[in-house]
Amino acid sequence: MIYAGVLKPFVGAISVGFLISLIIVIWLMWRYRKWGKDRFLTESLVILVVFIASLITVFLLPTYNDEDVKYGEKLSSCRMIEENAYNGSFNENVNKINCDGVITNIPVSTYQKMIYAYQEKNKGG
Question: Does residue 41 contact residue 49 with C-beta atoms inside 8 Å?
């Protein structure tokens, strides 16, 4: 998991790579009418690999911003009352925390994400 500040210089390049690969796939499909099947399939597979790699990088790689880090810092100063408490059949389990006398239920995944972002930022990551 990567802090958003680390990826800022690359987000534009990754997005451009994604768009270029999409344009190339569309262009290849248009040119398919003039080429033979073998050449089209070979070049399309190469472009498809680039396209999928771009999708994975842009959409599946989690990033964190300064707000996540600040919220994680706030959560780390709170006292955990109950961890992974059942919250009903159709709801995510929650962590019950006590922050300055105020008891709050925070979904486990949100809590873990914010704490992780805060810890990674403190490590220098």
Answer: no
